[in-house]
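Chapter summary example.
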Amino acid sequence: WIEADRAGKLKSRKSVRESGDFSGMRKQVTVLFSDLAGFTALSETLDPEDLRSVMNAYFKEVTGAITSCGGTIEKFIGDAVMAVWGVPTSGERDPENAVRAALAMREALEGFNEGPLKRRGIRLAQRIGINTGLVFTSSREGESLRVVGSSVNIASRLEQAAPVGGILISRETYRHVRGVFDVVEQDPLLVKGVAEPVPVYLVEREKPRAFRLPVRGVEGIETPTVGRDEELARLQGLFREVVTTRTLRLVTLVGDAGVGKSRLLFEFTKWLELRPERIRLFKGRADRPSSYAPYALIRDVFGFRLEIHDDDSPSEARAKLERGVARYMGEGSEQKAHLIGHLLGFDFSQSPHLKGILGDAKQVRDRGFHAAAQLFRATATEVGATALFLEDVYWADDGSLDLVLYLAKECRDVPMLIVCLARPDLLERREDWCDQRPGWVRLDIQPLSKNSSRQLVSEILCKLPSVPEELEALVVRQAEGYPLYVDEFIKMLVEDGVIVKGESQWQVAPGRLSQLRVPHTLTGILQARLDALPKAERTALQMAAIVGRVFWDRAVQQVADTRKAGSGKEVPGLLQALCAKELVFQRNTTTFGKSREFVFKHALLHEVTYESVPRQVRVRYHSQVAYWLQGESGERASQFAELIGEHLERAELREEAGVWYERAARRAKET
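The structure predicted for these 671 residues follows.
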């Protein structure tokens, strides 16, 4: 193992030299510790040469698993390994890659046990601990990388406490990888030098289809949800009913924009993540453009779950749908896939399973609905429950809403939880939505109480030595119980220099606070944040708003490249700046495979930004988005005919828009 130790140090030195001198730097990194269980006994039974041969082979496997996942070996100590992610360069998925490396190490060791070690009559096992946190890194020419700090000590303690064959991660690592791995919460761990017990989680496996749960907070501070204990407990109780009674529940969270529906669903998803039951999760979101396209919301659900990109060729999209449905339904799945796919616009018109019904839209619809119900029934047969989460359903097209209600009626005896987020105007549009049926629940989300609002302000401003009464009263009074107002108002205070951020502590600038002009509405707050942006960032955000609440960097790039004011070479950097200010977020998956996908933090922010664009400018922008969609969707352009037509109409290209609307009407008639 001395040879492996030297190889690891050489790799560390090489990484340091190639990246430049970063000695004396404080960085957030993810640290992995691993050691072998029973190594002492093994060393006492093997000849030293045989032991060296075994350990060199083992370290070769370990090194490969770590480096292939982007990690750097910090050192080998006997049978132990220390590796880090985030040095010399950081990546947003460092914690995720560290956990993935640990799983690869475990798999490699299992193969090692079944191969060369089995012939020797030897079986090795390992323990792994992972923690994410602030460290101090240093290096000198000719010396290996050094990473020190309490975060390293916690990772080492986690490794010691992990069960044989287990991977134990801290809460700081878990919060970055939620939704990616199956984990089981453990009893908190007492660590010497750490005042509070450390929450820890045992990693079991990577989820076959990950739904990443982002860190939620303000200015990098993860804040707990306050004032929603009753609503969260109700959702948890309804899920338990689904599992115990093996029946469906349809829950609609109803509330105004900014009242906290998405945050409540986020907290509920976190709770589900740690449940012992196997849960198969489907997610979808509607937006304003999708309200024009038949079954767009349901297509989003299937597209995301089955990784169907909007720029996939028609044959590739159909193949992905067929494979995905087959995973859940097995024999006889092809017919179901073709019926569902054609309903959703994937064009299975050549399928023998649709022969004789293509001219009858009602039959296509009825059989497609029935096939979808059979699919969701099948998904729940081998798991504890199936969950379907649908956001912003007030924008959804009627076909999608009809299908959701059909599932709720036809899958009554299926362990399935459907949660929909809606504004009150959905109930005016669809009076049948909250009918008094068994298992159908309406949960109204009210504004926070003043006490809860004060608690939220205190949590967000936890880095202030004390929150000035004047500031707290101002925020609570203006927010009127809307958490989004609290978030955005405090971000505005930071951007205006009223609150000055420090690494460990924040300060309030009293003079600036007394001069503050306070917008009286949430729309006013959002508009004030837009007005305060540098011109280039504001323009990029406005171009993105024309594309939609969900948008793609390449679409924004095309709009920017055609502006008379100049090229769009700065678009990637501008979008990252907007992400840093938490106005938009980059998604981990994309519906257009060659583009990065982003989403506005909130639907109301998208609406306010869109309305800020002058009408004549909108006209130009909409035409470029329409042409981009035509080019990117390729052979599947008919699937986006309604959306392309809408952009062309808003670009005042009515004749072209009419052609695309006619194309959309033909497709709708077929389904």
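To summarize the output: The chain is about 50% helix and 15% strand.
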